[in-house]
Structure formats: C-alpha cells, structure tokens
Design goal:
By secondary structure, the protein is of the alpha+beta class. Among the domains are: 37-255, Cytochrome Bc1 Complex, Chain A, domain 1 (2-Layer Sandwich); 514-718, Metalloenzyme, LuxS/M16 peptidase-like (Cytochrome Bc1 Complex, Chain A, domain 1), CATH 3.30.830.10; 739-937, 2-Layer Sandwich (Cytochrome Bc1 Complex, Chain A, domain 1). It has a seven-stranded mixed β-sheet with strand order 1-7-8-6-9-5-4, sandwiched between helices. Helix 1 packs across helix 4 (151-170), helix 10 crosses helix 11 and helix 16 crosses helix 22.
Amino acid sequence: MKFLSSLCISALVLAVSSCSENTSSETKETKTEFTLDYEKFVLDNGLEVILHKDTSDPIVAVATMVHVGSNREKPGKTGFAHFFEHMSFNDSENVPVGANRKMIPEWGGSRNGGTWSDGTVYYEVVPKDAFEKILWIDSDRLGYMINTVTEAALEREKQVVKNEKRQRVDNSPYGYTDEIIRKNLYPEGHPYSWTVIGALPDLQAATLEDVKEFYKAYYGAANASLVIAGDINIQKTKELVQQWFGEIPSGPEVPMLEAQPVTLSETKSLYFEDNFAKLPELRMVFPSVEEYNKDVYALEILGQLLSGSKKAPLYTKIVEENKLAPNVGTYQSSNEIAGEFIIRVRANEGVSLNDVKNAVVEGLTDFEENGFTDNELQRIKAEQETQLYYGVSTVLNKAFQLVQDNEFGNDPGFITKRAKFIQEVSREDIMRVYNTYLKDKNYVMTSVVPNGAKELAVANATEATVWQEEITAMKANEEVAQGEEAEYEKTPSKYDRSEPEYGDAPLFKMPEIWQAETSNGMNIYGIENNELPLVTFSITIDGGHRLDTKDKAGLATFTADLMNEGTATKTPAELEEAIGLLGSSLRISGGLEGITISGSCLTRNFEETLAIVEEMLLQPRWDEKEFNRLKQETETNLKGREANPTAIASINFNKLVYGDDHIYGVPVSGTLASNKNFTLEDVKEFYTTVSPKASNFHVAGNISKSRVQDALKGLSDTWKGEEITIPKQQLPEINPESVVYFIDVPDAKQSVLYIGNLALSANDPNAAKLGFANEILGGGSSGRLFQTLRIQKGYTYGAYSRIPNRTDVAPFTISSSVRANATLASLKIIRDMVNAYGSGFTEEDVALTKNKIIKQNTRNYESLNAKLNILEAISQYNKPIDYINKEQEMLQKMTLDDFKSVIDTYMPEETFVYVVVGDKATQFSEVKKFGKKVIELDIYGNPVQ
C-alpha cells in the first residue's frame, strides 16, 4: 500500500492513430480521434461499474476507487484515509485473515492500493481463472470488513503505517518538504493543509470507533467506482458484479467538495535544516487550479516550456549559464479542489539558494520577453501523443484511466476530451496562464539545506518547524501480533459468499520470436505485437562497468551519458528537439554489464527514430563544455547519494561481498574520487569498445521483421568494430564467518538491513531453480519475510529477498528497512528464518511455488517492455528462444529434495554478510547482542577506529 500525491495517469495527445488487434504493422496509419472502449452501468446501490474488454492476454485487472482521501479528514485525525486503506487489507467477514496479501500472489496475481489527497484505490491483476476470486475479495473488502476489525489489528497496522512514514518521510532527504509547503500554502483547516500520511501522534491516537465512523461515512457503494478490464465476457461479468457487489449498502450521501483554490497575501520564504540532505534544494510553489479545469492543460505545457528541454529558459539560466544545478523541474500538480505550479531545483553542493532563486527570476524574465517557438510547442504535443498510448498499454493502466476519469471527471471516456483540450491549447492560452498564476504572484518558497548549512538558504527565510519522532527503546504497545479474530455475526446474504472456485485455467503462450543478423555481426531478436501503434527497442552492447578500471570507475556510464549530449551535426538542444518532434524517446545508458541504447516511438516514426540512433551511436559530439557540465552533474548526483541510507547499505554490501579486486564492488556510476580521474580523452578511448560484434538489437511492437531489417541496413553498413574481450574478474573467497557491519546515520528513524552473500551467475543451470526456491521466503507480500516482519510483527513496511540476473556471480540478498528500535529483533527473526528454511521446506511449499510461478507467467509478459526483457534475457544469457517454457518444465520436475538442495547450497546463513545502516547512538549496542562479530564502517566502507 502507498500514499500517492496523485493517481492521475492521464496522458495527453494532439491527435492519435488507431490500430485494431488484427491490423498489420505494414498498414498505413490514419489519424483519428482516440477513444477507450467501455460499457458503463450502475447498480441499484449506486455503485458505478465500467467494463473494458481486452483479450490480448488471459488476465484481468480490477480497480475499485473510493471517493475519500485525506481531504475528508479532520484536524487531529490526519492520515486516516491512508491508515484505513491499510486496515482494509487485513480481512473481512467472508475472506480469511491475510488473504489479500497472501492468497492473491499465490494465485499468480499482484495487488496493491493507494491513497492520495482525494481518493483511495484498490487494484489487482490476476490470471483470468482467478477473476471471480478477486470479485469475492474486493466486494468483501468494500462491504463486509468493518465487523472484523480488532484492537490487535488496529495496533499492528498503526506500526506498519508509522514504518511507512519513517521510510518515506523521516528517513528520507527532503522528506519533510511537503509538510512544510502544505502548512504554509493552505490556510489552517483547508483539506490540503496536512499531508496524506498524516502525523504519527494522530495515527497512534486512532481508535476502533474512529475506524468504524470513517467506514460508515465513506465506504458505501454509492461513493465508489469499479472498473474491470481484460479478458472478460461482458454479460457474464455483469451478472457476477450484481451477485458480489449488489448487496453492499449504498452508504450515506457524501457531498461533493467544491473547488477551494487559495490565494496568498504575501510570499512566504522558509528554510529547514535536513538531517539527511547533502545538497541544498529550492522549491517555489504557486497556487493554481484544480484537476479537470481547462487551464490545467496550458499549465502542463507551460511547465514543459519553462524547463523541459535544453532550450528552456530555466534550464538555460540555471544549468547552462550559471552552472548551479544539474537540472530543474517545473510542473503543474492538480488535485480535486486545488492545484499547485511547482518550480524545483536541487542545487550542486555548496551552492547558495539565493543564486538559484535569482537565476529562476532571470529565466522567467527571459520567458516573458522571448516566449517560445512553434517547434517547442509541436515537440511537447508530439511527445504527449506517444505517452498517451503507453498510458493505456496494459489492462491495469486502462483500468486506472477509466476509474479515475469516472469518479473525478464524471466520464470514464474523458481521455477523448482531454486530447481535444490539449489540441486546442494555443500560444495565447499559455501566456494567459503564465500571467494569471505566476507573473508577479505570491508563492511559498522552501530552502531545504544540509544540517549545519543554514547559510545556503535564501536570505531572510524563516525557520520551518516539523514534528519529529524521538528514537526510544521499544515500548509495550509497539510489540504487536495478529491477536484473536473478531467475534461477530455475519451479514446475511442471499448468495453463497464463500471463496469461489477457479475458472478455466489460462494457458501461458510464449510469444513468437524471430531472429536475424546484420552484415556487421549484430544479432537481432524481435516480437511482433499489433495491439497499439508503438515500437519499443534496445541495443545492448556487452562491456559496460566490466570494462572500467577501479581508479576510473564510472567511465562506462559517463561515456554513455555523454553520447546523449549532441552529435557531430546537432547540438544537445537540437538533438533533443529532433527526437521530441517525432514523439520518440531515446536514451544511451551505462550499466553493470553493458551499454544500452533504449528507444520507443510510434510505428510510423520508426525509421526516422532509428536514423537518429545511428547518428548518436556513430557521430558523438564529444563537446568539452558538455563534458565539464556532465562531470559536475555526476558529482552532484554522487554527493546526493550519500544522503540515502538504502543506497549506503546497498553500495557497501556489494563492496563487502565482491571485495577490493572486483569491479562489481564499486558502484556503476563510480565514486567522487574516480569521477575526478577521467578526461575527455579517456571517454573517447572507452568509446572504441562500443562494437557491433558485442551487440544485440531487440524490438517489440507493431512492426514486422522485414521492416526492421530494412531500417537497420544503414547502421549495419556504417557501424564497424572489433571483437571485445571482457576481462575476467577475480571473485573473493567467501568468509566462513558471518560478520555484521554497522554504518552510522545519526538520528535515523529506521535501520536499513542488507543481508546475504555471493550465490551464482544467471548462466548457471541452477539460476532459475534458486529463483523458484526463493519464492516462499521473500517473493513479494506472500513471502515469509514480509508476512512475519510486517504482518505479524509490524516492524517494517516491507521485507524481501532476491537474486539478480548477472553474467558474473550475483549475490543472494535479503533487504528491509525496520523500525530503529526493532533492529535487533528483526535481525534475529531473519537469521532464524533462513536457518530453518531448507529443513522446514515442505511438499505443500513445493506445490505452492509451482502454482504461483506458472500462474504469474500469464501476466508477466503483457507490456512491450516485458516482451523486450524476454529478448534481452535470451541474448545476454544465451537462453533458448523458448526458455520460459523450458524453465516452467524444469520447475514442474523439481522435487522437494531439489528445493532443499538449492536452499542449502545458495542460502547458507553461517556465511552471510550483514550490513546495518542506522542510528549508532541507540542501536550499535543492541546489534552487539546479536551474537556475531560487529565491525563499524563509515558511509564509504572504511573501518571506524
């Protein structure tokens, strides 16, 4: 579950192309109005239901949106809408305790929920055979959960929500900024004057009566919308919806909220010294308009014009000319009753935010005087056309779009109107909204600076205050458990409300893959999929960080980044514009094991997009000015990374398990020291390793094999290169003694745990088996780590284990962020759980794992990116074309002894490296009681004497 600043996933468009399922990719596209097909009906109890049929995959998405967010709360009871969302996932009258979080993943599905200022949404995607089971769970949650709530469940969920706040807000750099802005932008008592997650004292004070009162006021059928999208029979679905949801009470009438935009009588400037921040950040927030107001569309385009390109005035003044920050963001954020236009700059280390503010003013003045070109406006609208398709490219995204627009826009098909409104935005509209909401208007400005660096704040700013939790020893009311189930009399129903049976089992069908090879030795892998006029592609080039040296670590990533900054014939701004005018996206990035060129485009623009790829790949600009700017940007990002406890834990875990001699022990982006070591000549030298003989081209979408081959001829004829030798890295001997490494982040409200050791390579025959064996332990919310540390104990927001795919040996890793005063207890639980895992693995666990993974495959490869991932796995790890089928067959043949053998071989707790990043003052002495050797490190991994 999560709290959202907005759920609106709307993608906007000028004019779009239609393409039916059976349309050949060679068919000429025609411009037409975009629509999203649906059928809507209303039950007698007021529940509005929208159905969308999509038979492209044997899956179904269900989204239930309740029209209640934090804007319905009362002062002193903040955070309640989000808290209630958590409570709703526990159990209900006809659904067993824990079914939401445990059973849905076991059916092969995924599930979650979200709360934001205006609403709460619950959603699932499942194989179609579990569709009615989801209706059973969703209807019971909406209509029959309140009687099952107990004091024990209430107290446990309080701890979970508090852990979420600690993780997202208290233990995160700039985490308090939203609270500061809301308190000062909105008047006291305004529904947006408090944060969605609320205040911890308010959460702790919540009672059972509060929960029941909130449910009765807002969780009626007439205050909700339900969307079902996917492989469904419309008539049968209507009958099932009537059966499962028709008896839910309507609930009291919930009055609609009128728009409550705010006006500031003066500009407010505030500063805050952040315990975690390493870089100063400036935000300027202007009151604007609510969602579905027509001015929103011009404001969104205004945001892109001000900072969304290298020609944009704020980017030019802040990044290019004054070199104050690596980037700048300007954007419109609208909610149900009010909106904000935000300017946000995270500056370089040590930069005065006075200088940043002055540069913002200069940029806005430039915009007023010089405006923008027609090309810039055309680029933004072309990009939005492509975004529109990606915004509805999965059944879950379609469900989100339909349910959002129905509940808040009173029209599930509002996307068509939105496209029209964007088309109608004119130059005059953009300047009008600029003058109405920004020019000479008052705003709230925050200067968030590192602790002890008040001098970097804007001059004369007032200190902001926020409530901060004190770390204490674990209190009695923080030790929680499942507790007794509630005693109640079930609500009568004319239907059998017990768990329904599975429907007909869906069959996973591996997509058809075609292969080819270019004349220069590059392999091609493709999947043709004609659902939407989109193409997603990548070129992967072996090498990457594996070709870095330790003293110049990060060079591969830096080289890739610099290749995005213009070509021999195009400046960075001109290159960006050329890509944007096609509505395409292109990015060259460096990774652990290679460099990747990633792209997406409309089918009609594939050849033109690939021509730009060819230019970027073969004619890099190597501009000294961009080299220096990118060096500064990298340095800023690396410094910012030091503020993130999770990043600190991950980086040091890798350093410890891979040792000093393996390049994987150094971050892909390098370090502050290594970043200073390489020159532009080093970049040019590294570029010689970018060879077609070490490359593979992957493409998925609405395009044929012959068209791809034709489009690649130019690149094949001109891109030459030699065979590349990847140096063999020396892996360290695994230490037979398990050691705990503690890293101090003062006043951390949580401890970040990274635990594990080196296991195996993705090329190892046992790689898939280890993935299967991990499912029961840490594979999502149904895993034992999550179920124990979050559901039973309330120590964390989440706990997982995983094994990444790597050509070289990868580590098996367990990770979690736990409440600070539960650090020792969590370490003991994880240790004991891993030690007992192999011996306690049962035949029931074997059957559950097989069912779960095979069912998951029906939904795992729906999107174009997921299909692209299939192709990349085949090329990178030399997998057979039908590897998913073969791995499923392997799974089906695995016995209990096979599972136990894999667990014992690759999860030996006695050799695990434990990394704990937390507050030394309160937790170091506790960790020493764990019974293992404890070594203290600084954030860079150096021993502390």
